[in-house]
Write a structure and sequence with these properties.
Elements (H helix, E strand, L loop, with lengths): L3 E9 L2 E7 L7 H10 L1 H15 L4 E9 L10 E2 L1
Parallel strand pairs: 2-4
Antiparallel strand pairs: 1-2, 1-3
């Protein structure tokens, strides 16, 4: 099925953007979610920093794990 990644879907400046956490790839979705659970504070802070630097009124719509091939990306968003 391929590698799993942590992604965030964010509403910025009237557009929905897909961002990918590029530092880590996981072999299973379970492994990905376990990592997200352990590091939830870190991911929240990173998303808040990105949102504040681009558009303070932007909103996080969803954050989760998915196979990289299943993420629809309308730009080359990456975050760390």
């Amino acid at each position: 099925m391929g590698k799993f990644i942590v992604f965030a879907t964010i509403f910025f400046q009237g557009e929905v953007k897909q961002l990918e956490y590029k530092a880590i790839e996981f072999s299973t979705k379970k492994e990905c979610y376990e990592y997200m659970t352990i590091h939830d504070k870190h991911f929240g802070e990173v998303i808040d920093d990105i949102r504040e630097s681009i558009q303070p009124s932007g909103r996080l719509l969803v954050m989760g794990c998915s196979a990289r091939k299943d993420i629809v990306r309308n730009h080359s968003g990456e975050w760390q």
